[in-house]
Structure formats: C-alpha cells, structure tokens
Amino acid sequence: MYEAIDRFVAKYITLSPEEQAFFHSLLKHRRLKKKSFLLQEGEICDFEAFVLKGCIRSYYIDKEGVETILLFAVEDWWVSDLTSFSEQKPSNLFIETIEDSELLSIDYKSKSLLFQKIPAFERMFRLLVQRALGVLQQRFYASVSQTAEERYLQFMEKYPLVAQRVPQHQIARYIGVSPEFLSKVRSTMYKKH
Questions:
Q1: Angstrom distance (rounded) from CA 153 to CA 188
Q2: Tens digit of pLDDT for each residue in 139-162?
Q3: Where are the domains of the chain?
Q4: What is the CATH number assigned to the segment(s) 3-145?
Q5: Which is nearest to 129 in space by CA: 60, 68, 83, 175?
Q6: Could you tell me the pTM of the whole model?
C-alpha cells in the first residue's frame, strides 16, 4: 500500500526506516466510490491526499451555477484545498471522485506533527506548493493569452492520460469554456486536419 507514496517521497527526501514507519503511521487509507465527495463547499478541508488509484476533480460553482474545474488528480498526484487546509477556514471548493479511488491522506494535526518530528518533510511540501503555484500561474497566463483551441491542445498534450479518463464536458470546464463551445472548437480542429 505504501510503495507508491514511498517512491514519491524518495524523489524529494531520504528517510530512515524509523522515519518512514512514523510517516506511514500518520496516513489514513481511504477507498471511495465514483462520485464520492472528499470535500464540499463550506467544509474545512482537513486532509492532503495522495492518489494511489483513481481520478479526482477539484472545482467550484459560481453564483450563476457554472462549474469551473481547477484540477484533475490521478495516480501519484496530491489533492486538497491548500487554502482551507493551511488556514483551517471553510472551503469554496468541491473535491469529488470521477472514478473509484484509493487514497492515502494526512490530516492537519498529523502533518504538523510530521513537520516537528521530520523537518525534511517541510522541504518536500514546500517544493510541492511551489510546483502547484507554477502550474496555476501558467494556467492563468494561458487563460488570458491563448485561444480555447490552444488551451485544449495544450491540455491534451500535457495530460494525455487524464484526457482519456475524464468526459469532454469536464475538460471544457477545466480550460474555461462551455461544453458546447469546446464541441465547436474540436469540430473545427478536425476539419482543419
């Protein structure tokens, strides 16, 4: 059960067997069915979860009822609401499984304890936050500087495994267009090629 997360952690830090066992003791194993919520708007996010198996989406719904997808998470990715988790404030996000999923999660208290006992984990999580921020900045830049077609092509190129696992209407919500508009974009692209 811990092989995948141990490989992931080893890319960033080296742990002794005792440290690894302590880390494992703080993790909670969860199995969730498709369309299960890990978090709903208004709840405080008390987990950061590593995906062992499955596909998960993080999204919000605006005042008009339009859904915007912020993230898809598949195997070896982390999912959480960083703001709600770190500030222990109610979330404005939903986190929901797209497929049956299996996770290892750590709660807020356990993560604080982990940082106290094994400070190297602070470095790992800092690097993960930096990477996530970089991805968000690139998405924001793309949303104001690229056409819908360019954003779609970039998504398909950057996340080919995700693209095979999520419905087109969710990809549309990820790149910031309506499903109908994405359908027109795709049909125009196929006519060109």
A1: 13
A2: 888 888 988 888 888 888 888 888
A3: 3-145, 146-193
A4: 2.60.120.10
A5: 83
A6: 0.89
